[in-house]
Design goal:
Layout lengths: L7 E6 L5 H11 L4 E6 L2 H23 L4 H22 L11 H13 L1 H10 L2
Parallel strand pairs: 1-2
Helix pairs in contact: 2-3, 2-4, 2-5, 4-5
């Protein structure tokens, strides 16, 4: 989607201890069709990137079993809550707002509707 120049967004998690460096780093990536938001929560951002894949497997099973959109929506809602609970339990300094950034909710939605983990689980459930 980035290569096709569709509007995309991303979260840059960094904290160099210098606001000017943080902003210049964000600006290196930010473009009119690729919006980059910077946050300081490195641990929460990285954990979201991993945990979303587990929820996406569940989304694939829901799709493969034909359980419907309401079931999938509930899975995403509870999955996001569980991601937040896991992160705040096992990592210090995780900010609740991280889960509402593109690295949290947006990436979760994208992965649960089109990611390879979702597709793999859907195919497995249809065997």
């Amino acid at each position: 989607e980035v290569a096709r120049q569709n509007m995309c967004e991303s979260t840059l998690a960094c904290e160099f201890g210098n606001d000017e460096w943080n902003e210049k780093t964000r600006q290196l990536f930010d473009e009119p069709l690729f919006r980059v938001t910077r946050i300081q929560d490195v641990s929460g951002t990285e954990a979201c990137g991993a945990l979303k894949n587990i929820v996406a497997l569940g989304a694939g099973f829901v799709d493969g079993l034909g359980l419907g959109g309401n079931t999938k929506a509930a899975l995403l809602r509870v999955g996001l809550l569980e991601m937040a609970k896991f992160c705040t339990t096992f990592f210090q300094g995780v900010e609740r707002g991280t889960f509402l950034e593109s690295c949290g909710m947006a990436d979760l939605i994208t992965t649960c509707y089109g990611g390879r983990n979702r597709r793999c689980a859907e195919a497995f459930a249809k065997l």
